[in-house]
Write a structure and sequence with these properties.
CATH topology: Metal Transport, Frataxin, Chain A
Strand content: 15-25%
Order of helices and strands: HEEEHH
Number of strands: 3
Helix content: 25-40%
Shape: globular
Strand order of the largest sheet: 1-2-3
Structural class: alpha+beta
Number of helices: 3
CATH superfamily: Hypothetical protein
Distance between the termini: 20 Å
Largest sheet: 3 strands, antiparallel
CATH class: Alpha Beta
Number of domains: 1
Length: 74
């Protein structure tokens, strides 16, 4: 298990909001589109009840241009 394993949807959302992301709209299936208020970047976030897969969270952070260390300390 890596450092990004075991994060639930609600915890990821809490941390993304600290970086200026807000809910924009629903996406396909159980996904949501979130937008950064300062620069307009968009990310797609899966809304599942289980833990988010580590690779999925890494891809989301890469797309959002958020450093892993910054995310863990948020």
């Amino acid at each position: 298990m890596g450092r990004l394993a075991g994060f639930k949807y609600r915890e990821v959302v809490r941390r993304l909001r600290a970086f200026g992301f807000v809910f924009d709209r629903s996406g396909a299936g159980s996904h949501e589109v979130w937008r950064n208020t300062s620069d307009g970047r968009k990310i797609t976030l899966p809304h599942h009840s289980r833990d988010m897969a580590e690779g999925t969270l890494r891809a989301i952070l890469r797309e959002a241009q958020i450093n892993i260390e910054d995310f863990l300390n948020a």
